[in-house]
UniProtKB/TrEMBL annotation:
CDD domains from the UniProt entry: UDG-F1-like
Primary role: Excises uracil residues from the DNA which can arise as a result of misincorporation of dUMP residues by DNA polymerase or due to deamination of cytosine.
Gene3D superfamilies reported in the protein's UniProt record: Uracil-DNA glycosylase-like domain (3.40.470.10)
GO MF terms held by the record: uracil DNA N-glycosylase activity
Reaction catalysis annotation: Hydrolyzes single-stranded DNA or mismatched double-stranded DNA and polynucleotides, releasing free uracil
Protein species of origin: Flagellimonas spongiicola
Name this polypeptide is given: Uracil-DNA glycosylase
Family: Belongs to the uracil-DNA glycosylase (UDG) superfamily. UNG family.
Subcellular location(s) per record: Cytoplasm
Transmembrane segments: none
PROSITE patterns reported in the protein's UniProt record: U_DNA_GLYCOSYLASE
Amino acid sequence: MNVDIDPSWAKKLQEEFDQPYFKQLVQFVKQEYKSNTCYPKGKDIFAAFDHSPFYETKVVIIGQDPYHGPGQANGLCFSVSDGIPHPPSLVNIFKEIKTDMEKPYPDSGNLERWAQQGVLLLNATLTVRAHQAGSHQKKGWEQFTDAVIKTISQEHEGIVFLLWGGFAKKKISLIDRTKHHVLTSGHPSPLSANRGLWFGNQHFSKTNELLAKMGKPLISW
């Protein structure tokens, strides 16, 4: 089965695309997009992979669901398109970067600039129905994205995984920590951040320290 995804990932994930569950998932997603307003746009469903080819990936950030408001989701977790107001979690991410990296708060919430440096911004579920958070969960996406994480773990070395919040932390079991680095903290959502579980985690400077030790280019956050 052919899926419109970056060729380097297509090669690694072809076995998944051929699985019965994935074929059912494709049918479900096609029907949902035909019958309802869904996000992100069809061309952006696999944007995380297209912007960060397999062999260029250095860092993995795991989100849960795409944003479900108009014009927000662009296929990269936590990211919104240019000109879209920043959702609360993204505001807190940028606040932490401002403190941690002493960088000014950015105008644009579009994280393509991270993805193009090798940050895979992976939601566990890649599509959602408008205004219905979690509406495409448990349809097969999680099985697919778990396979993505396992593939990265098995076939890469020295990837920095950033796991924010309880949902993302459950993915630790998929990662070989003898080969990779895992940083965990609370979620950047206001609920978690306001309880002191997000701010001060210094994940952005810590990621660059790890990359520097491995002789890899740093991320310009």
